[in-house]
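ARCHIVE CARD
Drawer: 12
Card no.: 0347
Subject: one protein chain, sequence and derived structure
Cross-reference: see card 0346
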Amino acid sequence: MSTSTTRASSALPIRLRGVGRRFGERPVLNGLDLDVEAGEIIAIVGPSGCGKSTLLRQVGGLDQPDTGTVDIDDSPTLPTDQRCAIAFQEPRLLPWRTLRQNVELGLPKAGKGDRGSKPDKAAGRARITELLDLVGLGSSAGLRPRQVSGGMAQRTSLARALARAPKVLLLDEPFGALDALTRLRMHDLLLDIHRAEPTTVLLVTHDVDEALYLADRIVVLADLSQQQPAGATGASDTTAGGAARADTAGGAAHAPTAGGAPSIQRIVTVPGDRPRDRDDPALAELRLQLLADLGVHRVHAGNSTTSTLTATATAGRTRTETAPEPTPADHRTAPDSTETNR
């Protein structure tokens, strides 16, 4: 684990037990158990519609589970829990306000019962200046959203989320709309922010490389609409004895619940301290495994096609198989190597 002891001073742990959520007849989350340590960065990946954003909403108090409990620091989450802050894929800045004024919106406000305690305006101004400098926007504070790039707008959104010094930071695909180079820069900025502003981070992403570079652990969610009922024969995530498949990278196993298949397919512990080498062979192997979890089973290498298949872990190893070279018809239907099953 690459989190340090200094981070626990301002970050809080999260505990989810048996969390389930349905929308009509459609189950989105089921039997979700997860412990997040104070100061961890957890990436959440999975196919579209598997409940990634719904999970963030449960933690932030923006939605309530139908079953189970969500606790932050051993106390239940509250509606729009003030211990949390959230940043979305879109910056959602007010166009008539400057960048500085947009960040100021994130400052904590005095509650209805706090009439005697007014926010310290001088401290608030100093906090905003500190955050703008942290995200590299100190000299652009007077500009309006229409005058800045997408990356600058997203940095403003992050600074606004940090204004109240949240104990838990929820990021819902915050870099998904950025170009590739800006996204890489934002990855490093997030790590810089995490060192300077210690907090617990839950990051929803469709980008496997992003998850491997940023996260301590990666939670892979399953699409419950594609899952077999718990106890059905042939379930790929259980052993012959019925125990849940253990994660080969050190994550915990998750047993099926009585109410159906669990949401968490597996948890991967990412090796190495941050910042990581993006070309690390160990990360490349994990990338193939995660893409297979997401349904991308083939990657092209020259004129041949290899098939990486997830299998039941045995003695800490995951079996991989190589498919024969496809026929021309196979080439017409094989998914492109850049597909990540969004």
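Annotation on reverse: Residues 180-196 form the longest helix (17 residues). The radius of gyration is 21 Å.
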